[in-house]
Amino acid sequence: MQYVNLGRSGLKVSRLCLGCMSYGEPERLPQPWSLDESASRPLIRQALEAGQKRRIDVAPQFLADKKIVQSDNTINNFVIVDVKSEFGQAFRHVVLPEMAQSIKLEEGVLAMYAAIDKANPNRWYFYEIYASEEAYQAHRITPHFKEYIEQTAEMTTYKKAIAIKPGLLMNKGGLKYEIE
Known about the structure:
By secondary structure, this protein is an alpha+beta fold. The protein is about 25% helix and about 30% strand. The chain starts with a strand and ends with a strand.
């Protein structure tokens, strides 16, 4: 497995990939929910059969979360946004503070992760986790989210949101990383 530096934190992490922290060697990792190879293979095979055939090499831009234990109400969204090349920096300066405000101010926002595609830096990937549908809808009417939508309306060429229903979702919370 290849490991990369997580920004300037000094941490070495596996490349962002299918499921991130759920796969590995449970006896080596501090997360008791990590799956060993034999338990991971069926999930990886399912992803491949569902069309996840290529790896996306990403550069993390913002990672923040709170403690998450999945319930039937948990909302997970994977969002793809293509930004016009001339607006790359402007988009970054709008979206990153909005994400930081969301995680700080909204109790129901459990995680906000953002990365750019290394092969296409104008493509952004977001993974958002909300405590419930109500928390997601409340997020959509906050002043900082409305401001983000308004300020970036002319900066993007493509947006697609994909609802995700994980088989198992847990973490310890407290992750905070923002690219400088």
